[in-house]
Amino acid sequence: MSSATTSAGLPSGMQVLGTFPDILVIPEFVFGGLVWILVASTRVTHEMSEGWVMFVSVFCFVISTLLFFLYMCGAHGGKPAWVALDAFYQVIASLFYLSAAVILGYTTYILKDLPPFKYYQIDIAAVVFAYAATLTYVIHMVFSLLRWKSS
């Protein structure tokens, strides 16, 4: 096996926490979890838009956790199909989070004049963290696609 193939593969074990872009899973957990918590703590006024944001945050949190534990256990076995799966998931997660952040931002803008002001501030914080999660997923996606291309 050539060194180019081994360096382009997915890490396993504790190496997951020491390689880039795989270390980005930690800010993805933090920002995604904050979006989840903040949206859940506000009053639901637009069920469809806030439901989509909740779906995206929970879906990405669960799938990222599952993939993280599979990589930690070494379940991928160094197979190139897992590199493609990782890249595909990062593309989907980036698109989902971008749509959720835009929808949440628009919904928050619409609700700016409704009382109480406390919920508006929580929604603003959720929008900020949704865009932060989007940014981390996009960075992870770019480097996962580069890893997939080189494998």
Automatic annotation (TrEMBL):
One of its GO terms (molecular function) is structural constituent of myelin sheath. Residues 16-149 form the MARVEL domain. This is Myelin and lymphocyte protein. The chain crosses the membrane at residues 20-40, 52-72, 87-111, 123-146. Signal peptide: none annotated. It comes from Salvator merianae. Belongs to the MAL family. Keywords: Lipoprotein, Membrane, Transmembrane, Transmembrane helix. It is found in: Membrane. One of its GO terms (biological process) is central nervous system myelination. GO terms for cellular component: endoplasmic reticulum; hinge region between urothelial plaques of apical plasma membrane; plasma membrane raft. It holds the Pfam family MARVEL. It is a multi-pass membrane protein.
